[in-house]
Design brief:
Layout (H helix, E strand, L loop, with lengths): L11 H6 L10 E8 L5 E3 L7 E4 L3 H11 L3 E7 L16 H12 L4 E6 L13 E2 L2 E2 L1 H18 L3 E4 L6 H11 L8 E6 L6 H7 L19 H13 L3 E5 L5 H10 L4 E5 L1 H12 L5 H15 L3 E4 L2 H9 L5
Parallel strand pairs: 1-3, 1-4, 1-12, 4-5, 5-8, 9-10, 10-11, 11-12
Antiparallel strand pairs: 2-3, 6-7
Length: about 325
C-alpha cells in the first residue's frame, strides 16, 4: 500500500505535529454570574461547581481564572429589583456596571465582556419591552443601546447582545460610536436558537419568562439557512464576532456560518451541556475530563475561534498539560 494514514499516528509527538485543530487558553471565555449583596458565594443548584458571586467576592473567581490561564470573562447580572422595563440593566449603579468597575480596578489583566439583554432585569422575564404579550422590537432597541453604552462607560472591553431583536447590532454600534466608544467591539449572539439547553441558566440568573416562551425572537432549531442569514445581517450591521449558541448540537451551524462570514466565530457551550456532563460524571457513567475535552475539540474543529464554557478553567489546565490542543 502506498497510502497508509496510520503512518502519521505512530507516536504522540507525531500526532501533535500534524494535528489539524489547535487550541489556546486565550480563546476561552468564562461565563460568570454576579449578584447583589455582600460577602456571598452561592452554588447554583442545577450547575454543580458554578456559583453566583457578590461583587466583593468575585475576585476569588477572577484570580482562579488567571491562575488557570483564562483571561476573559462574560458577566451576567442578577439584580435585586426587577421592573417592566428592566431599568437596572442600564442603571449607572447596576450590578453589572459595578462588577465591571471592580474587575477593571482589581484585575486589569482580565478582558471583561458584558451580556447585553433585558431578561434578567424585567419583571416578566422576556428580553425586551412588552406590547400586550409580545416584545416590542424597536422600543427594546433603545434600551439595549442604552445598556451597552452604560457598560462601556463602566469600563467593559466588549459588549455582547443576546436578545435576538432585529437590528440591535446596528443600534448598539451607532450608540457606542456616538458616545465615543468606537473601539469597543460587539460580539453578537447572532445564531441563537430557542433551546431546551438553557434550562439551568434560567435557574442561575432567575430569568425564566413568566408567561409564554421566546420563540418569537430566538430561532427555530429546525432552520439552518435562517441562521446563516442572521449571521450575515449582524456582520453587515457591524458585529465584530459572530456567536453560535448552543454549541454541542449546532456544530453544523458553526461550519456553515464560518464559510459565510469574515468575522471570528464564537460558540457558547451552554448551561444544559455543562449540567448533563456533570450529572453523568457524578453517576460514574462518563469520564468527565475526556468528555469535556472532546466537546471542546469538536467545537474548534467545526470552525470556532472563541469558546464560551463553564469548563474554561479545566480546559485551560488540560491545554497546558498537553491533554488537548
Amino acid at each position: 500500500m502506498v497510502k497508509r494514514p496510520r503512518r502519521l499516528r505512530g507516536s504522540e509527538n507525531l500526532r501533535r505535529m500534524v494535528r489539524e485543530t489547535r487550541m489556546d487558553p486565550h480563546s476561552l471565555i468564562y461565563p460568570m454570574f454576579v449578584m447583589e449583596g455582600q460577602d456571598k458565594k452561592e452554588e447554583i443548584p442545577s450547575m454543580e461547581g458554578q456559583y453566583r458571586y457578590t461583587v466583593d467576592r468575585m475576585g476569588e473567581c477572577l484570580q482562579e481564572l488567571l491562575d488557570a490561564g483564562v483571561t476573559s470573562v462574560m458577566l451576567f447580572g442578577i439584580p435585586k429589583v426587577k421592573d417592566e422595563v428592566g431599568s437596572q440593566a442600564y442603571a449607572e449603579d447596576g450590578i453589572v456596571q459595578r462588577a465591571v468597575r471592580y474587575a477593571k480596578e482589581h484585575f486589569p489583566q482580565i478582558y471583561v465582556i458584558t451580556d447585553v439583554c433585558m431578561c434578567e432585569y424585567t419583571s416578566h422575564g422576556h428580553c425586551g419591552v412588552l406590547c400586550d404579550h409580545d416584545v416590542d422590537n424597536d422600543e427594546t432597541l433603545k434600551l439595549l443601546a442604552k445598556t451597552a453604552v452604560s457598560h462601556a462607560q463602566a469600563g467593559a472591553d466588549m459588549v455582547a447582545p443576546s436578545d435576538m431583536m432585529d437590528g440591535r447590532v446596528a443600534a448598539i454600534r451607532e450608540a457606542l460610536d456616538e458616545a465615543g466608544f468606537q473601539k469597543i467591539p460587539i460580539m453578537s449572539y447572532a445564531v441563537k436558537y430557542a433551546s431546551a439547553f438553557y434550562g439551568p441558566f434560567r435557574d442561575a440568573a432567575g430569568s425564566a419568562p413568566s408567561f409564554g416562551d421566546r420563540k418569537t425572537y430566538q430561532m427555530d432549531y429546525h432552520n439552518s439557512r435562517e441562521g446563516v442569514k442572521e449571521a450575515m445581517l449582524d456582520e453587515e450591521e457591524g458585529a465584530d464576532i459572530i456567536m453560535v449558541k448552543p454549541a454541542m448540537s449546532y456544530l453544523d451551524m458553526i461550519v456553515k456560518v464560518k464559510e459565510m462570514v469574515d468575522t471570528p466565530i464564537a460558540a457558547y457551550s451552554v448551561s444544559g451541556e455543562y449540567a448533563m456532563v456533570k450529572a453523568a460524571a457524578k453517576m460514574g457513567w462518563v469520564d468527565e475530563e475526556r468528555i469535556l475535552g472532546e466537546m471542546a475539540v469538536a467545537v474548534y474543529r467545526a470552525g470556532a475561534d472563541v469558546y464560551l464554557t463553564y469548563y474554561a478553567k479545566e480546559l485551560a489546565r488540560m491545554m497546558k498539560e498537553g491533554k488537548i490542543g
